[in-house]
Amino acid sequence: MTETRTDGGRPAGHHDRVRQPPPLPVVPIVLFGVTVAALVGRYAFELLVGTNEAVQTWSTVFVAIVLQAVPFLVLGVLLSAAISAFVPEGALARVLPRRPAAAVPVAGVAGGVLPGCECASVPVAGRMVAGGVPAPAALAFLLSAPAINPVVLVATAVAFPQNPEMVAARAVGSLAVALVMGWLWSVLGRPGWLRPPRPAHAQGGTRGERFRTTLQHDFLHAGGFLAVGALAAATLNVVVDPAWTAGIGGVPVVSVLVLALLAVVLCVCSEADAFVVAGLSGFSLTAKLAFLVVGPAVDLKLVAMQAGTFGRRFAQRFAPATFVVAVAVSAVVGGILL
Amino acid sequence: MNRLVAPILLFVLGAVAVQLVVFGNYVDYVRPGHGPLLAIAGALLMAAGLWGVVAGLRAASGASAEEPASAARLARARAHTRGPLAADRATLERLRAEEQAEGHDHSRLPGVGWLLVLPVFLVLLVPPPALGAFAAGRAGAEVPRPAAVATDRLAGPDPVPVELHDYAERAAWDEGRTLAGHSVVLTGFVTPREGGGWYLSRMVISCCAADARSYLVEVAGAAAAEVPTRNSWQQVTGTYTPGDGPHAARITAQQVRSVTAPQDPYELP
């Protein structure tokens, strides 16, 4: 609560204390922390991680997911910081058509130019909303960018040398999911569900300063939630029996659902998911398409990052809806194209 | 998260990424092709971190009154002591919005970022090893179905070095047609087999260790009677023998030799 009432009874010196908050001795604290970590940390961690192979596997997978995502996260955060620092407020929104019905497909197709995976698109979409882009258009961008960019489509073509139609099916399917979700949000979405990131413009300061603070903020934010997702994915990777998909491949509807769920759990980067699913034996092409369409739209790390960027109330509604739409779209597109 | 701690964390994370690439350990986690990307991203993070530390130190050493957050605090103090009219309304509104924005204020950095300390500590203090027998043994001995089995003849004079997953695929999904009549050399780590015996095994990654698939080749023959140490790296020279069970791979060893772990523990598809 901000206290704005007059309050004459304050002790003298209060004013000065507020003006000059005692600076935290950050550097000594950090040095102390590093020293303690170096002295004790190794033994503490060895006790925890030790030679237990399950724990070691868990930490390998966790570190791998973070390292694999970091370059794409940096790319996305550089873009989001550039948007907040150099693109005038409202400029992105003015480029898009006024009506959401038309803005959604434009933003969805524009997603095809961001050569990254889903980690890059979350901070960018967050800055788009903060910069005044209507939420449905930003969400269409969020869903289409990791799925239909050239890098991902080429990777898909390489992974499916026998089935070039997979590339078309993936592009069509993912774009359809992005558009459907954008339109759905513009019809059904309530303003209170989505908590937009605060625009950096309100911060004042020079452009360089805005760039730096946004970069720092968005990286720690998206990176932190990436770590949350990586923790969950690594845990499932070690806990869930990898044989659970065996024997389901032949059952038509169930196999689609199973690969869609696998995509949510595995959190494979969209630039690699085609290689992963191509190696799964016994599944129909439609089921594999569901894996490719669901993965870049809904997976554990992505849901965690969305919840962090747009609020938990948003992710609670958006992620399940996207999952349902993505599975349905995959079934339809797979039925027609594959 | 504090204004100075945040850039330090960025710097350290970037430094860890660069260090992993420089010393080559990154291949335990991601595919080799990822190295340059990781190095560039790490260098950028280090630069951003340094920039943040410098800016933070400059702000701390006197210029802080011009910082927006301090301006807001100052305005609040003025309103506090002299009444609401002493500070301009917009500043106060912004201050209130900042306080209600649950950490969405850029000067108060997101606490969830602290989780990034975890990979840094893991890599620096107890570097997780490349995936081994635990991961390899989980999926069972059935060789994953390849998109297309290689049918080209093995290159070179016998004994031919063959990638373990290539051997497993040719053996399990092509009945060893292109392997028969050759003496091959396989390199992998030891995964003990339930009920006796052992597998020579290797993980294949497309992107990172999270998408690893395991390939196991049962090692048979008198030369392999003694089970080597779990997770130790071995080189097996032998000939193709049909595996037991559908899509299982096996080799009859003429020679088993202990070797050092290869620089790149994973094979690429």
UniProtKB/TrEMBL annotation, chain A:
It is found in: Cell membrane. Residues 1-19 have a biased composition (Basic and acidic residues). Residues 1-20 are annotated as: Disordered. It is a multi-pass membrane protein. InterPro entries: DUF318 (IPR005524), UPF0718 (IPR052923). Keywords: Cell membrane, Membrane, Transmembrane, Transmembrane helix. Coiled coil: none annotated. It comes from the Bacteria. PANTHER family: UPF0718 PROTEIN YCGR (PTHR34184). Belongs to the UPF0718 family. This is Permease. It comes from Pseudonocardia yuanmonensis.
TrEMBL record, chain B:
The chain crosses the membrane at residues 36-57, 114-136. The keyword Transmembrane helix applies. It comes from Pseudonocardia yuanmonensis. This is DUF1980 domain-containing protein. It comes from the Bacteria. The lineage of its organism: Bacteria, Bacillati, Actinomycetota, Actinomycetes, Pseudonocardiales. InterPro entries: DUF1980, DUF1980_C. Residues 180-266 form the DUF1980 domain. Signal peptide: none annotated.
